[in-house]
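User: what does the whole thing look like in 3D?
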Amino acid sequence: MTREIMLAAAQRDHEDSVAAGSTGEKEAAAAAAADPNDCGPPSFFAHADLFATLLASLAPDLDKLQAQLEGQRTIGKEGRSEDAPAVVDGGGVMMDHNVDPATADAKTCAQDRQFAQARELLDAYQEQPWLLDAHLEQLVQPTMARLQVLMSLLYEVGDAVLTARCVRETFRPLLGLLYHLSKVRGHKTVIKFFPHEVADLEPVLFVLESVTTMNKAGGTVPRASSDSQLWEGRYVLLLWLSLLSMVPFDLKTVDSGTETGGDPLVDRIMALAKHYLSSVSKEYEGAALLLMRLATRKDAAVTHLPDLVSWAAQEAISSVANGDVFRQRGFLLALSTICKGARRELLLPVIDKVLPCCALVDEPLVQHNALLRKLLVKLAQRAGLVYLKPRAAKWRYDRGNRSLERNLAGTATVSLTPAQGSNHIADSCADDDDEEDFDVPEELDSVVEILLNGLRDRDTIIRWSAAKGIGRIVNRLPHNLGQDIVLSIVALLEEDVLVAPDGKGHDLSQVSDSTWHGSCLALAELARRGLLLPDRLGDVVPWILLALKFDQRRGAHSIGSHVRDAACYVCWSFARAYAPEIIAPFVSDLASALVVVSLCDREVNIRRAASAAFQENVGRQGLFPHGIDIVTAADYFAVGNRTAAFLDIAVGVARYPEYHSQICQHVATISLVHWDPTMRVLAADALANLTPIDLAYMSREVLPTLIVQAGSEELNVRHGAALAIGEICLALQKSAATAGGATPWGEGDTMTKVVLPISKIIETYPPRHLDGFGGDQTRFAVCRLITRLAQAFWPATGDFRSAAWQLAIRALSQRDEKVQTAGAAAVAALNSWHVRETRGIDAAMLEEMLDGVKVLPNADRFKRRGCAMALGGLTGDVLVRSGQRIFAALMDAAMVQTDLSSSLNDAESRRNAVQALASLATHLSRERQSRTEHRDLLRAVMPRLRATLFAGLADYCTDSRGDVGSWVRQACMHAFRDLARLENDNGDGDCEVIAVAMSEDERVRLAGELCKQAVEKIDRMREVAGAVLMEVLWEVDGFEFEGREELRALLPRNAELNWSSSTQVYTFMMPVLAMPQFRAPLLEGLVVSIGGLSESLVRHSSAAFIAYINSLPALPPAQPPPQQPQPQQQLQQSPPPPLTIHAILTTLCDNILATHTRIDRVSIPTLETLDLMFGCGAVRRARDAVLWARALTLVQAEVFRSRDVKKLLAGAKVFCGFVVGLGREGENDDGDGGGGGGVEQAVVEVRRKALAQLVGYLAHPYPKVRRAVAELLYLALTSEENDDVDDEGMDEEESAQDILLATDWDLPATQLKDTRDRLKALLSP
Amino acid sequence: MGLLTVLKKLKQKEKEIRILILGLDNAGKTTILKRINGEDISTISPTLGFNIKTLDYNGYKLNIWDVGGQKSIRSYWRNYFEQTDGLVWVVDSADRPDRFADCKAELHSLLTEERLAGASLLIFANKQDLPGALSSEEIAKLLDLKAIQTHHWQIVGCSAVTGDNLLTGMDWVVTDISKRIYMLD
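Assistant: Here's the predicted 3D structure for the full assembly of 1510 residues, as structure tokens:
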């Protein structure tokens, strides 16, 4: 007989037939079903095999186990005795006894990794877990089938120790994976795929008992130690057991234990579940579910449920006294699970015992634990539902008949009017007697109180839980009580609301954001269920409109986005709940509020939420003005970008008169005073875009308020107002210009209403706003305002002109760079403004700026920076009049000051000066008026300008911030690019401008510098240098020099190269070393990278360098070289001699080391590079004793008297290279002879000197140096010994090595002098 | 737990199905919607935007979106494709012969929309009550439905005015979708 039962809970229908389908269509359906994309974006099929692989990887173990268990079972059957388990265990049946534990561990680790990978894969589905549904069966069932068989075998064998170990070692990964599935998809869904045969009940119970550390009085000894990693497995087993507990048979009939006198099954399961209920890990959830399933069984409900409930309630109350959070958590969860799952009739008798638990909410233990509060709110709700008969409130608002079938069944003549909804209410109120018939128990009061208090909880999850609870409870309440609750929620909103200071509207600054959020959630829940009756809408909507813009300042930021979000939910629920005519009175308010929030909120999720709510309203209500167009323009994706939403979409929507004033008001009064400065800037820009829609509105309604606000004591207000006034004025002027008028400032009363008040702001700007707290922001805004006014051809009235100049100039000496930039922009704008008015910049102002950039002792470095920046923005006549002086001042400022105190060496000033020079040069060449004068000026300054820029390229100044010179170098590179572009612009046919072109030497020099910077250590610099190099090489026609074609061949135009990536750039640039004109600069840059600090940079640059020099010939061949394969070289008449290692080494010594003596930035890396070249044998292969001697001298000079440990160590390594890295005399590894005896003599000399230097270091004052040198020497001697074992000096060296090893080099240097001298004697030949 | 999360959860929990009704203008989309919503169908003018109706069927909550069919609006259809589970394509069976080519082109280009991938497709051959209406087989041929490999599809002849076969069609589309999305319940 088969005992397989399909449980009602897990009924599934997997038939694939398509209703009423033809055959062709069935095929199509099958094709579509097989299409992995069928189920939504991320396809799972690609990974399905991974899970199969995982299971297969465990299969050998499982098979082995199964075979062993089957064998064991036979033994057990033959003679089952009391001590059988012990024998089994002692007999070493368990699989891994003969396996080395380490191997087993490694195997487990590998398995764990695989499974961890699978878990990560599943995690990707956390957001849309239902996508897994189609594959769950495939995932769960093979695994469960396997476990099912093994567990029943284990049960038959009956060895608890063995079982516990199996679970811990063999099943754990599988159970873990099942747990993870339940975590991602939810246990309710996953559990449906678990086997649910009656026969499984006892095995699973047995397994779980075996792994339980329970110490039962019944004699079960503590078994598997509490295994922290096993909680997932225990949880899954509890879930499985909870499913099995639903078998519809009397458990007594399946209980095999009753015959042998053991505990009844129900009691065993109950004990187990109670045990796990107080578990600290997730098992308590499984245990609560198990308890509920068990206690709601037909055969257990009557006997066990009341006791269980009283027990749990009592324990919950008593555990509070103990302060045991974990226990209480379990009991509360069990109670609320039971209240949810058990039938109402069963619960009614005991529910009074549950209610006292709800009073625990005031206990301090609960007050401080969000989870406990949530469980209590849940429990209160469910207890409340038990008190009330399940029914849908008759009084609820119903929008009409919504059943598709009924609608279609009612034949053609039936037509429901939309007004049916309101009739419906009337009907329900008519049978009031039925409505009010049942009485509501008093206990419900406390339940409702807990829920209403839950709405104001400080934790979101509790408010949300309470809101849902209120929705469910009200659904079962009579009309008047339900409405009372609605009123209480409105009362919650009114709590702490003050009257706004102006007497109109509300002041929400004192209300609790939590309360508002919870109340909105509750209202949304009620509306969604039709429990918020239409006649209450008038009470609620005004609050919702306020909630949509809820924003409470908290110091430097604000809170309230959650309230706005919940308000959107309410609006969304309204759209679904009510018929259009009910919403109609509120449409215009709701529509404009939603549109404004969807476009002008700061948070993206709120904009999207409002947009979703608006769309829902448009579609269902159809009343929202221009709804379709707005939904189209402001959809989910469009509102995702805040800038676009403010500047484009909001402006587009504002063209509809219904929304214009709302949007303008929101932007001008809320966004413009927002705590986030970027919002204020955005709002000002948005106002500029809004201006052309209605000029009069802006100048009459918006500007006057802003003018008042510009002097506000509050930083946010005055900042936003100043920004906005400028933008609006410029927009007004532009609109007037488009309309054909010159400026709008003279029209009507504009002069008195707009121009004079705004000029007044500038004229009398309170200095305290500029210097006090937030002064930088204010200054920035005021400079912006001046800039915009100047651009708008502001009429110069009264003192406006001088006041504006003063403000702009003062801004230049501020510390904040943003302010300086704004000040410089204002100066530039004022200067052009004067140009329009045919008045030049004041001589005094110019002098002040020229003074500002001067390099004087005690000069203010911030002022220098700002003035340099501002001078670069000057245009027009002033350049003709004072151009020479401006250029001269800037060029002075761009130079590194070697002879002055470091405070004058300001990298930012130099950078700004260089940038200013470049922009002035650009101005001059572009200016169309008075071309000759400008060209003359340009021609006159150009040579010095280029010299300045070249000097700037060598600016390697550092300070505490690091390589600050890099800013200057970067500016110089950009400046050169601009100059090159100028040549390009004006080069053709204009012979006069050719005069400004560079000489060919300068071009080569520039290309070399760029090559150098392109391989230096800072990623950003390589990026800039690479880009500029490619541009001048390929895009600038006039940039010609000898070898350009060759360089172009090496650096092709379309090279897809990421210059900032050290992995690519070095290999790419290496061949350029072959070009003699670029070798030295390129090598210098390279050396700096090789000796750099960051590991990846050093690795990639040295690897590329070594690989390249290893590919080179050592020395130039005696005969002319054979034809090179490169076509470029064939083209040339006499190909240059191919690059050799010798040439590289020569360049390194003569062009880098010799020219950077004592410049540590380059010289230390050069030493490191030399060491690298010794290491790869490159120095030896160069075979030039003269060069070696020269190199040694240079290195000696470099480290002479140095106190830099880094340099000393680098030098020591190079000396060591000289000792062992030059090859032995007579050795001839390149086959081209080592030269004559004189050369050998020279080599010996070099080696001797180097050795002497090293030995000298052994008594160096720095212990670190002594230690390192001793080590180096020892290694050097050892390697020599290996080279030629039969050297006659072997004994001496042997003892030298002993001394090196035996000496403690950390002793004071004075004590080591003797040792050093002994070594010296030993080692000298 | 913002609104967007709530909506996503609600859709799952309340077994919501989103169905889009599309088709050329004057195919009878709004009439079908109003008929299945039990509303008066005597006065219907061209739809200029869209209507959403919610209906219950077999325990599912159908959110039915009816979007206008005029040529000028068709470019907006794309806005409504998000999270669409089912597509109801309405055809005027008694339409002018030249419009069927238009209808076929629109339908086939619609099905290439990425965001409609996997949606079940029901074709209503509407206005079967009119004299001269083509049968659903003839329309299937005219629209080359056999060529559709990417979607489950079904064609049902119906009449929005008499209500004939509307239930059959809606039943097919809901069953097909629910098998796909809510297979577990």
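In plain terms: Chain A is about 70% helix and 0% strand. The mean pLDDT of chain A is 80.
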